[in-house]
Amino acid sequence: MIPSTITRRGFLAAASAALCAPALLKAQTRWPLTVTDAVGRMVTIAKKPKSIILGTGFNLFALSLIHPDPVSLLAGWATDMKTDNPFIYDAFRKKFPALDKVALVSNGQADGMSFEAALSLEADLAVMGMWQAEGEQGKRAIEYLQSIGVPVIVVDFNLDPLKSTPRDIRLLGRVLECDQQAENYAQFFEKRVDRIKARAVGKGEDGPLVLMDAFPSTTRGSWAVGRTGLGELITLAGGRNIADKNLPPQGGPVTAEYIIAAEPDVYIATGSPGGTYTVFSIGPGVDPAEARQSLQETVKAPSLAPLKAVREGNVHGMWNFFNAVPLNVLAAEAVASWVRPDLFGDVDPADSLAEINERFAAVPFEGAYWTSLTT
């Protein structure tokens, strides 16, 4: 029985901490540890990391799912999560005030890392995102960190999320000696993805046409998400992506004429809190009413209002940064319920989010992460 003086969340946090405390013999024999990262590099880590650089701040999400005090591990990090999603930054800072004192080494964008700042930190590990490692600046950062004796591992929650997310959560679990908690989350993820795969098998050939529109804007137009990243969730659910055949894998900008000619059955917008890039505001800290109202305003645009999906009320939206964090399983469930309600009417990502917050999250994820105009 849990003592009355201990909350259920406190009990679960203590249990999570125990899952990051392997037996002494196991810990002693683990190091040095050689792992294979998301880009196939074999990386040897000399000792248990206690001073980590995050090349993108969004990877704090991943650490927080498997470690009870992820901020205690940080030597330095990028500002991109703080800049794009300030509410979740504040939530982490309130739980872990030391976050304010973590050194800034990068903005997480294409202009790279401050090598001088990285050198001063004496870190014993760096973690970078796949999208960073593929760029020239990211490659330079990896080479520099390795030259000063800091091993670098690359994780992928973006390019091939259904395959790579559980794999790379397990990788982080090994590196942080949080194997069991990481395994629990990986199995949680796989169980939900496998449910979608099983129901949608053989259903995609005549599935509904879907436009996933990243940061729609009346001034910049639409960006149709392609077949990789979040676009993979469309085909997973048994839908057909309008950008699947004649755009690059990641998608690209499309004209109003392109969209109207495609005549999608389902429209899905992506955005961020406060409408940073678009009027559509959604994500951590956003009120559900704000998310829904801003989505209504979004589809009044001349290029979107005539669409069949809009006329028939099959309009939805979700947080764009699901493409950077291992919470992307929630996006998979939301997309499945929108694209094929006949197959996934009983799938509710809110249930999965509640379980994540109860079993895994060092800081609960709150706000409107998805919305719909049909409810």
UniProtKB/TrEMBL annotation:
Q: Locate the Fe/B12 periplasmic-binding domain: which residues?
A: 41-347
**Keywords on record:** Signal
UniProt name for this protein: Ferric hydroxamate uptake periplasmic protein
The family database entries (Pfam families) matched by this protein are listed as: Peripla_BP_2
Q: Where is the signal peptide?
A: 1-27
Q: What is the lineage of its organism?
A: Bacteria, Pseudomonadati, Pseudomonadota, Alphaproteobacteria, Hyphomicrobiales
